[in-house]
Amino acid sequence: MAFFASLQTLLHARAKSLPKKISRICAVDASYHFDRVAAVATEAVDGLVVERSVYASRFSFPYAAGLLYLHEGPFVTEAVKRLKVRPQLVCLDAHGAAHPRFMGLATIAGMVLGIPSIGIAKSILVGRVEPSDEAIRRITYNGLVVGFATGRGATKYWSPGYSVKLDDLEMLMREQGSTCLRLMEESHHLAGEKARTWGISE
């Protein structure tokens, strides 16, 4: 585990730039049922869903805190690879920079795919949400802004992944946030259904 944690830290790289226009967005999520796992990638072009892809298998690596990329990474990246059209942005139910080593599953999956990525998580992993009346609130960790939070009830925690800067992320949230959240919800729902039914007759 120490080896993989060290690798994660070494891979942390300075964010690059996004394409000026983002029209092809993919959201991918994985769900489990006992040892079965299914990952579903849902892709939209200009907000309209055009394709879904599924990768289902069984776990081969146990979950370890802070190393979710080893547990889910092979599944979510394979689901994205099975899309016919390569997306310009990948959204994951995970953390990117808002991680103890500033590089969670959302970053590493994007790096493996070579596609800009962001994390949209349901719970906070590190840091704190700065008090604010604004719709988009900052998440700080060790004196650094590592992401943003939206919503007051079912809060979502957004953080930049591979090749996405904080400014890029804030712009994406304002311009494409609703599309990202809708795709995430659909991928999560479909992955849950697939995980429960895949391999039952095996």
Distinctive features:
globular, 9-stranded mixed beta sheet, 202 residues, 32% helix, alpha+beta, 30% strand, archaeoglobus fulgidus dsm 4304 fold, 4 helices, 9 strands
Describe the SSE topology.
Blueprint: H1 2-11, E1 24-33, E2 36-45, E3 48-58, H2 68-81, E4 89-92, H3 105-113, E5 117-121, E6 128-129, E7 136-141, E8 144-150, E9 156-160, H4 166-197
Parallel strand pairs: 1-4, 4-5
Antiparallel strand pairs: 1-2, 2-3, 5-9, 6-7, 7-8, 8-9
Helix pairs in contact: 2-3
In what range is the share of β-strand residues? 25-35%
CATH fold topology: archaeoglobus fulgidus dsm 4304 fold
The second-level CATH architecture is 2-Layer Sandwich
Structural class by sheet pairing and helices = alpha+beta
Low-confidence stretches: none
What is the CATH class designation?
Alpha Beta
Task: Report what the structure shows.
- The chain is α+β, with helices and mostly antiparallel strands and 202 residues long.
- It has a single domain, classed as 2-Layer Sandwich (archaeoglobus fulgidus dsm 4304 fold), CATH 3.30.2170.10.
- Helix content is 32%, strand content 30%.
- The chain has four helices and nine strands; from the N terminus they run αβββαβαβββββα.
- The chain has a nine-stranded mixed beta sheet with strand order 3-2-1-4-5-9-8-7-6.
- α3 (105-113) links the parallel β4 and β5 (117-121).
- α2 packs parallel to α3.
- The longest helix has 32 residues, at 166-197.
